[in-house]
Amino acid sequence: MLTPKKLLLWMIPVPVLLVLCLLAGSSGFGLPDISTLTGRALLDLRLCRLATGFVVGSALAMSGCALQAVLRNALAEPSVLGISSGGSLGAALVIASGLSAVSPLILPAGAFFAAAATLLLVCLLANRVGNYAPNTLILTGVVVSSMLSSFLMLVLSFVKLRVIHSITWWLLGNLQATSWPLVAGVALLVLVAFIILFTEARTLNALLLGHETAHNLGVSTRVAVPLILAAATLAAAAAVSISGIIGFVGLIVPHALRRLTGANHRVLLPCTALFGGTFLVLCDTLARTLAAPHEIPVGVVTSLLGGPFFLYLLTRKGERTVL
Amino acid sequence: MITLSHVSASYRSELVLDDLSLQIACGERVAVVGPNGAGKSSLLRVITGLLPAKGGVQLAGRDIQHLAPRERARLLSVVPQDIANDIPYRAHDFVLLGRTASLSRFGGPSLEDQQAVEEAMTLTETWELRHRALPEMSGGERQRLVLAMALASRPKILLLDEPTSHLDLRNRAEIMRLLTKLNREQHTTILMVVHDLTLASQYFDRIILLNKGRKIADGSVAEVMNPSLLEVAYNCPVLVFPLPGTSVRCVVPSFRF
Fold first, then answer.
1. What are the tens digits of pLDDT across the range A280-311?
2. Which CATH architecture has domain A4-10+47-315?
3. Does A220 touch chain B (CB under 8 A)?
């Protein structure tokens, strides 16, 4: 674990890295000529994409961090509770019905509400069966997620090839089709989720020791657990609504940071949001520049870059913690 | 301090506490013994309000159902049998968790919180470990930290569920010495679930024997460490012999191999 001073040292490269990512483009490295209309538009596009990447990365990472604590499961991430499957089905239905052509806001709104409704369903079922016990929540989430994936396949089997392409492209995840109002709206939702989770950071610390210990420490688990799940879903659903499915960020960033900062969520949550955002911006920069002008799906880069780094942390000498 | 009147509790259809009544006064040191499945841990869960029960459960004269979670946690602390020990908490952060009920949601720990943590860590001789991570520690060190976490809230009542079961002789004696000191000097009421009957007779003035959710005996060491009572409760022949010059009773099964 890093001391607070060393942790601050780790944060110094973050702004530098973000500026470098802003300068990197498929047309080359450097600031676009802002004296021309095209240059200004290009810079605006890069800034918007960088902001989208940062917001989405932060949201996915902090959502994964909260879910890993509340579910006490090392493999927990937004997809475990069906958030990703719900968002995917919502987006697929919007695309298949042709509603996405009516307004650019309908697709993210459909994905967002479907993801949120999925979690609501999972929570209602889990509460009925096992009083929000972690294993019950995970099992219910996996079953609901699997059912929604089947519905998605059913939708795919009935639509035209052109629509299949659109849905598949959305499912691959990308940070392209955003606008400033959309990013600002999503950032606001993510900020609300962050504030809720940060105020519940001590509750997350207690929940990491188990629901019974948390109860003994004075946590009202019947109130705190649904609140944390709702905030984590708000962040993940908001992210999924504009980026599609981007895996791995919600899983590895919290794990990597937990090994560096320790498990105190008062430190871990802000660090996860900061480094999760930076990580996705970095991955997106690589995705759009490595094989330019062709663009690699960003989810491929998050896995290829994050996986080895995570394995390195996992096998580092002297480290034996899992969560 | 703790009053249970005609308490019954069950997990789904299985009755785990059956019409149990008991009173524990302020500053008492009480051991709860009994065979596996007797309802010992369930008794602790009922007292903490985790397991809903029929009948009355009162802490310091107040009904457990009417105590807010934070208020309850400031009144009583629990040392569980097992606690997740692979989580990378620094020892100081871990003990600070004991102050969850008093900590502000937004700000950092107050001076009082810091003092309570230092006091609890000094008392349990863990202050030197404060910068180390939990997974790097031995079982004995971890158990002392769990106790420090429970003491950080400065509780009036301490419930313990077999806290010494995984410890060697020296660490076991250390924990018991500490609990006795707490009880004598700070008048903390202690209710501890114990499997080791010899240990129970060595460190406790009063012993409650449970079997199948019912109270079989409640009294002094001499009253409860009675071979005929123990044989009925444990369904096993036992030998009880006093340790010369003490009130301690050594209890061993009398099976021949």
1. 999 999 998 888 788 888 888 888 887 787 77
2. Orthogonal Bundle (1.10)
3. yes
